[in-house]
Amino acid sequence: MALGRGGVAAALPLLLPRRLTATRAAAGAQPPGSVVRVPWALRLRLQRGAQRRRRGQGEAAAAARPGKLLLRSRRPELSQPRWQTVGRWERPQLVSAGWKHRKACGDYFQLEPSQEAAPALQAPSPDAGQGPSFAEMGLQPALLAGLEDLSVDRPTAVQRLAIPALCRGRSALCAAETGSGKTLAYLLPLLDRLLSRPEGPAAAAGAAGPASPRGLVVLPSRELAAQVGAVAAALCRPAGLQVRRLTGGGAAGGLRRQLRAPPPGAAVLLGTPGALREALRRRFLGLGRLRWMVLDEADALMDDSFAGPLEEILAHAPLASGAPGPSGPGEARTQVVVVGATFPAGLSQTLGKFTDVGRFVTLTTRSLHRLPPHVQQKFVRLKGRDKLPELLQLLKERPASHGAVLIFCNSASTVNWLGYILDDHKIKHLRLQGQMSAAARAGIFASFQKGDVSVLVCTDLASRGLDTSSVQLVVNYDFPDTLQDYLHRVGRVGRVGSKVPGAVVSFVTHRWDVDLVRKIETAARKRTGLPGMDSSINEPALERG
Fold this sequence. Notes:
Layout (H helix, E strand, L loop, with lengths): L7 H20 L12 H25 L4 E5 L6 E2 L26 E4 L29 H9 L7 H11 L4 E4 L6 H15 L18 E4 L3 H15 L6 E4 L5 H9 L7 E4 L1 H9 L10 E4 L2 H4 L2 H13 L18 E6 L6 H6 L8 E4 L11 E6 L5 H11 L6 E5 L3 H13 L5 E3 L5 H4 L2 H7 L4 E4 L12 E6 L6 H8 L12 E6 L2 H16 L19
Parallel strand pairs: 4-9, 4-10, 5-7, 5-8, 6-7, 8-9, 11-16, 12-14, 12-15, 13-14, 15-16
Antiparallel strand pairs: 1-2, 1-3, 3-11
Helix pairs in contact: 4-5, 5-6, 8-10
């Protein structure tokens, strides 16, 4: 007799008495309390049925229990309340599970904010208050004056973590979430070290030769170099230190003029890899006096287009001995700080060619590689032909008072094409992509930051490090190729200094996009970090100090 899954429990009371009666008839009367043995397979089927009934009761209770949502779905039964937890080894039921089917188009879900403030602004512990102030960290008075000019009053989580360690002269890998204040986290302690060891009178004698900075920051784009340069200049102004930027895109004579522009003898140089390599090759620049070097946005610097120039720069710097050894920070060795929100595989192998990475200390924040809990993130499954109407409707219905908008595309050609469409619909915007000439790119992002135009269509060139505190909406017109890119894009909103947390809307079109969305949804439901991130940071060569 074949029994269906649903009929096992109902048939059991009928089966057991029959078996028991047949057994008694064959073997005679049984004494009271005799044991009836249930087959193991039947027992498992009964247990599974009971689990399904309990799960159904739990879902019904969850639907009936009020409360704020962690994940809101178009289908209410797939929404997840904030109080509900998903076990580490449990496989949650995903909204995006069936999104590879064409009938899923039009479905969506969104991650609701679970807190108001960015994790970087939270206190280290309930008993510690806001943690130590900048003054309590022992920074020079001139730097504290610079912080007042920048209207920065209290340190963020990564600044509390990094400033004491870097002030001790340790080379480090500093990993923190986007928008958490990493620029000040590395500039403040390194400038403090320069001020504590002023230049001798002989240093001015080399003014006629190649530029010889004591601090060097390598950045992947001229827009980021301009932004960090403005912060460094504000910090250095009260201290009397000079800051200079070096970016390419012109003739070699332009590099010489940038380095020799008055006032001479800049202590800190910020530059892009291509411009720095060209200046070193032409001997406009020397790194013999370098006291510290920062590699900002390390994952972008390790890209194929920058890997060669970066290695040449590292080869010119006095890095052979690595971080300060037993004789203390007075040794003439260059302190190296690698900074980023995500890190590429092979980072330690590249650095290991030039310095002892085994001496590096690794500094990481608790929110690293986690989805920002204060930013609303919506994922919409669409057909490719429906993306443009959806975007146009979103832009036309959005009031101008709701802040700036960043629209990300995966290629320069899509940026240009989308720009023409927005022109046709009389939507004022700017475009930014890596294939533009230096002259065309000059001032575009600065104009966007000032608020002259509230819509910027761009590639991932604008997703690394740039201060976008005025942005309140990010639209992933093309879904990013990697989870790392998604984290950088979503980090354009809800930054330290932003007035509102903002929101992100992602258009999910391709089957390979769905694979990434499933990983994001699973991490959100389990409240864990995104998968596949830690391997590039916790490599054996980069030990925690």
